[in-house]
Amino acid sequence: MKELEQIALLISGDQKAYIWLVDTYGVKVKNMCYHYLQHEDDVQDAMQEVFIAIYTNIHKFDKKSSLSTWIYRITVNKCLEYIRYHTRKKRNGATISISTTNYEWKENQIKSSFTANENIENQEQKVILFKAIHQLPEQQKTAFLLHKIEQQSYVEVAQIMQTTLSSVEALLFRAKQNLKKILADYYKDYNS
C-alpha cells in the first residue's frame, strides 16, 4: 500500500495504519530519541510522545515534505522539549520522576548501545565522539546528528529543521569546527 493511502487511513483512525506507522518508523524514532536522551526509560517516554503527536496531528500533515521528514521534525522537537522540560524541573528543585539522567553523555549508557562485535578501541572512540557531539549548541547538534548519524541529506535536514540549505551547511561547518576544537582539547588533556 502506498504511503498516501496509509496517511488517509491514519487520518480516518484505522488501527492497522497506526501499526504500519510504528513498524515503519519506530526504529528511526527510537534511534533519534536515543541520540538526544541516552537513557532507555527516557527514550521510551519520548517515543510515546512522538507517536501520540503524530497520531493526533496527522490531519495537519501537508504533504509538502515526505512523511519521514515530518516524523523526524516531530521527533527532534519532542526530544528538545523533553530535555528542556526536565532540565527546567531540575533547576527549580522539583522532584523528578524520570531517571537521574542529567543529559550528559555517560559512558555506560553509550557502551550499552554497542554490539558485542565492536572492539574496545572503537567503543572508546564512540564514547569520546558522542560526548563531544553533546557539547555542541542545540542547532549544530541537531544538524550533525541528522546528517552524520541518521544519514539524512542536506535537503532533508533543512526540511526537518525548517531552515534553509545554506543554514544547514553553515551549522554543519560550525559543528565540525567545534568538534575539532573539543576533540583537540580532549586529546591534548588526555595526552598530558
Automatic annotation (TrEMBL):
Domain RNA polymerase sigma-70 region, residue spans: 21-88
SUPFAM superfamilies named among the record's database cross-references: Sigma2 domain of RNA polymerase sigma factors, Sigma3 and sigma4 domains of RNA polymerase sigma factors
CDD domains named in the record: Sigma70_r4 (cd06171)
GO BP terms in the entry: DNA-templated transcription initiation
Molecular-function GO terms, alphabetical: DNA binding; sigma factor activity
Keyword DNA-binding: yes
Keyword DNA-binding: yes
Keywords, sorted A to Z: DNA-binding, Sigma factor, Transcription, Transcription regulation
Highest rank taxon of the organism: Bacteria
RNA polymerase sigma factor 70 region 4 type domain location: 129-179
Membrane spanning stretches: none
Family: Belongs to the sigma-70 factor family. ECF subfamily.
Protein name: RNA polymerase sigma-70 factor (ECF subfamily)
